[in-house]
């Protein structure tokens, strides 16, 4: 007797346990008889205890009628219930209700019949799970996908999505417009062009690499023209199939490559033209130097002969000889400038750096050409600061000084003589030339360092428009700077500065 009581007690405890488990399980559970009458409902199915008691023995039609629920709900449930009984299988369906605030509530419901020992249907278990959050997330995901799709569709890039085997699952409008190809496999469309697209695709698809970029693949467009593409791979998982896909972003670089090729072609043509110009200038200079030297020496010999013979040559003859010598000097300087410009433009001008006495170079230039100048004026030169030897090209420094002083004198004729100053400071040395000449028009200031450009106010003053261009370049070669301040009809001040490079 005692053992029987213990057994009954144990069974009762087990029964209570499963009742509690069933009652509190996080899913709404209902048990029906074969007529779709409620035999049991748990707390999640109906939260109010009196309602749970009331519904036993009733069906969903009675429930919907009593609690003002849509009758479609009962009809839908009865349909799936009947199917589960008739087929003897589990039936799954989705049900949409509304909460107190009128928001949709999504439930995933299932009916499955339970048979007795004789194989007859004994009762049917129904249960449901609230999947509202899942559906909301799916809705948000779809909205995001829709937005993303719109973005991809609007891109100027060619975008395709492929399986790992290259089967196309999506192509954006730009791809369709460009390729004009309805093939379902990307390898039938994209041709390799040194970048081995097929090899790179398969290698990337098989790797754990997230992204990969390369150049260049190409395809034949709708007009059968070759289109060059750079491409970028990236992976993503299709949430519907849970399979990895590869997205390929193609950028049409045909125009860029064509522009680069045209640019390179133009550069080659420019270099060839520059070389031809340099060759021409060198040839002309060489061919002219000899006859000019002959003319100059002949004129000088005539002057010497007349002097040695103590013969007074006619004034006109002397005038002509002076003119010849002057013009030959002018032509020789012009040829020298042309040759220097040719070397500058071709990049063949190399500075011959050495230790230079800047003060001595300046005084030599002034003594030889500006003391006095041909109009009788003497250029005033001052030096400030401690004099030190500088690392520079002495010939180029001499050319800088000559050009700046010559311009100052030439464009200030009839005015006080130009002033020049060398100044040695802590980290730099400067050379300043100031004149009281004609000044520069505003437009000329912007073009002053361009070859053959001269101001509109120079009148009959001789010049080639090369001097300041040469000065500018030579100053830059010495890592220096040049500054110009000029006022029309008042004069010009030119300041050049160089880093103080010295031998201690």
How is the topology of this model organized?
Blueprint: H1 2-24, E1 28-32, E2 38-41, H2 49-55, H3 60-66, H4 71-87, E3 91-98, E4 104-115, E5 121-130, H5 132-154, E6 158-162, E7 168-171, H6 173-179, E8 191-192, H7 197-206, E9 211-220, E10 226-238, E11 243-252, H8 254-308, H9 315-346, E12 354-356, H10 358-369, E13 380-384, E14 390-392, H11 394-410, E15 419-424, E16 428-435, H12 442-446, H13 467-477, E17 481-487, E18 491-499
Parallel strand pairs: 13-15
Antiparallel strand pairs: 1-2, 1-5, 3-4, 4-5, 6-7, 6-11, 8-9, 9-10, 10-11, 12-14, 15-16, 16-18, 17-18
Helix pairs in contact: 3-4, 8-9, 10-11, 11-13
Summed up, what is this model?
By secondary structure, the chain is α+β, with helices and mostly antiparallel strands.
